[in-house]
């Protein structure tokens, strides 16, 4: 059997996402001296642009790492060894962040929650209210849980912390919502926001970010956590003139300049968010028309960047994914953690348009048919109707 595949692969996992060819072209530019004046201008431009993406006037630092590095940087730059942190575990990535905190020698208090629902701020309020000694130093939540397709209300979490009159820092993971779903680091009162390059920013993996509030920066000054590579202090010193304390990922930064231009200048964030909302709505309509169940159980918490779908009884979701990959050259997200082989995830974020979505849904529908999954109707047709009506 030939392994040749004509046409292009459909990368419809919820990140890494499709990289636009103009971003790839920018990344392919000749590498420059990272201590040259030309690089300083580039650094200043992208560090300023990132503030627009995080909707902050505070500093954003950037590491040459995957998102996990920015998780670590958020904790080690603000806390002390052995500090207690409150972690809301409602999905695979929240549980991975907790595992990292444990490995660092922090003491997580875990709110073990149902993965099908968003963060319940009242649970955070109760734990903080009971913490009269202010032992908890940070509250960590994931804005958009990529493993489940559930988005949480960060303003409600902030309110819960305020109403409990608690001093804990608020740390938020926006790895799969940043640059796709509205997220306001400053006005939502977040202290450290964690981001990554490979999803809404339409770049390959390899860059990660921390947006930092004034309060987090004050905590950084007294934090004695052992750290070196992830230290904000040196980053900020060098960033002031557009440089970095060590060799930056120069070519990814060329790509970042291009993607920031696309998101902030050419399309505009408001339109980017609306595009993601509309594609997510079309996808959800398709799933319902197939007669399948969306994993997220709360209508108000549906993610606009991905949709997780429960496999119907006794059908392996990985078998459906395998058929779709082999027959139609499309990758879908696998179920993670306790939902391995029980759900599959459609990514509809990043560099994406109506026809890419309808092709994606066609591939899913054909795969379900080949796997003899009983369908109530054509979800693709319902999505086409919605997209045409709202075009
Ligand atoms: C919400 C979320 N947090 C954290 C991570 C971990 O990031 P990385 O795999 O880039 O280290 C991911 C990865 O997909 C994610 O989706």
Order of helices and strands: EHHEHEHEHEEEHEEEHHHHEEHEEHH
Mean pLDDT: 97
CATH superfamily of the largest domain: Type I PLP-dependent aspartate aminotransferase-like (Major domain)
Q: What is the CATH architecture annotation of the largest domain?
A: 3-Layer(aba) Sandwich
Structural class: alpha/beta
Tell me what the structure shows.
- With 391 residues, the protein is of the alpha/beta class.
- The protein folds into two domains: 130 residues, Alpha-Beta Complex (Aspartate Aminotransferase, domain 1), CATH 3.90.1150.10; 245 residues, Type I PLP-dependent aspartate aminotransferase-like (Major domain) (Aspartate Aminotransferase, domain 2, 3-Layer(aba) Sandwich), CATH 3.40.640.
- It is 42% helix and 16% strand.
- It contains 13 helices and 14 strands.
- It has a seven-stranded mixed sheet with strand order 2-10-9-8-5-3-4, sandwiched between helices. Strands 1-13-14-12-11 form a five-stranded mixed sheet, covered by helices on one side. A two-stranded antiparallel ribbon has the order 6-7.
- Strand 6 and strand 7 form a beta hairpin.
- The radius of gyration is 21 Å and the shape is globular.
- The two termini are 41 Å apart.
- The site of pyridoxal-5'-phosphate has 12 residues, from helix 3.
């Amino acid at each position: 059997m030939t392994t040749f595949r004509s046409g292009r692969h459909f990368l419809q996992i919820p990140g890494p996402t499709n990289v636009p060819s103009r971003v790839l072209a920018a990344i392919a530019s000749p590498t420059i001296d990272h201590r040259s004046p030309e690089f300083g201008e580039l650094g200043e431009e992208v560090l300023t642009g990132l503030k627009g993406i995080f909707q902050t006037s505070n500093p954003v630092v950037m590491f040459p790492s995957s998102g996990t590095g920015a998780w670590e940087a958020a904790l080690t730059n603000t806390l002390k060894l052995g500090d207690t942190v409150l972690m809301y575990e409602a999905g695979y990535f929240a549980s991975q962040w907790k595992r990292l905190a444990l490995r660092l020698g922090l003491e997580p208090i875990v709110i073990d929650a149902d993965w099908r629902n968003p963060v319940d701020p009242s649970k955070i309020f109760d734990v903080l209210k009971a913490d009269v000694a202010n032992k908890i130093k940070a509250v960590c939540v994931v804005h958009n849980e990529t493993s489940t397709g559930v988005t949480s209300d960060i303003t409600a979490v902030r309110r819960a912390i305020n109403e409990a009159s608690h001093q804990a820092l608020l740390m938020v993971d926006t790895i799969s919502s940043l640059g796709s779903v509205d997220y306001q680091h400053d006005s939502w009162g977040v202290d450290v926001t964690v981001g990554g390059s490979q999803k809404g920013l339409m770049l390959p993996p390899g860059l990660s970010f921390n947006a930092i509030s004034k309060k987090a920066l004050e905590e950084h000054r007294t934090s004695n956590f052992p750290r070196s590579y992830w230290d904000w202090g040196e980053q900020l010193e060098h960033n002031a003139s557009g440089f970095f304390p060590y060799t930056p990922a120069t070519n990814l930064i060329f790509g970042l300049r291009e993607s920031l231009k696309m998101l902030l200048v050419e399309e505009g964030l408001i339109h980017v968010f609306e595009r993601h909302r509309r594609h997510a709505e079309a996808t959800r309509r398709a799933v319902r028309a197939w007669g399948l169940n969306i994993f997220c159980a709360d209508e108000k918490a549906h993610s606009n960047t991905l949709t997780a779908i429960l496999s119907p009884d006794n059908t392996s979701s990985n078998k459906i994914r395998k058929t779709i990959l082999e027959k139609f050259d499309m990758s879908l997200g696998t179920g993670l953690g306790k939902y391995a082989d029980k759900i599959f995830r459609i990514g509809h974020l990043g560099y994406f348009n109506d026809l890419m979505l309808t092709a994606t849904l066609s591939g899913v529908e054909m795969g379900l048919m080949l796997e003899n999954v009983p369908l109530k109707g054509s979800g693709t047709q319902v999505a086409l109707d919605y997209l045409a009506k709202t075009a």
